Amino acid sequence: HICQASNVGANIVLDALPLSTIMRDSLLADDAITLALSGGDDYELLFTVNEDNKVGMETAMSHAGTKVTCIGQLNASQTISTTLNNKPIPINTVGFEHFSE
Q: Domain locations in the chain?
């Protein structure tokens, strides 16, 4: 939604997704990532920050006791790519549609 609204693309680094230790230890990597992307009720706030403001944001969040995880970067491509272990990998998951028929 962020990319579409801003007419940008992104490279998402799937290895960087903030998965719990239990999830990482209990499931195969692909299963844990699929579950994190498309299921469950474990929510994270997704936002973007200009590279020039990244250090300041990280400092402010640290002072507030809030952990922040960078999971990728925006780009001008208008496509979303995903990588796992530094290799391109397609994802075909969709989140829950609350208002679909």
A: 2-88
pLDDT (tens digit, 9 = 90+) per residue, 41-76? 667 889 999 999 999 999 999 999 999 999 999 999
Local structure of residue 68 (DSSP, 8 states): -
pLDDT in tens, 2-28: 999 999 999 999 999 998 888 888 888
19: closest CA among 84, 63, 80?
Answer: 84
Nearest CA to 5 among 55, 59, 47? 47
Cα 23 to Cα 65, 69, 83: the distances in Å are 23, 17, 19
What's the pTM value of the predicted model, to 2 decimals? 0.80
Q: Are 15 and 85 in contact (CB under 8 A)?
A: yes
Task: Mention the CATH class of domain 2-88.
Answer: alpha beta
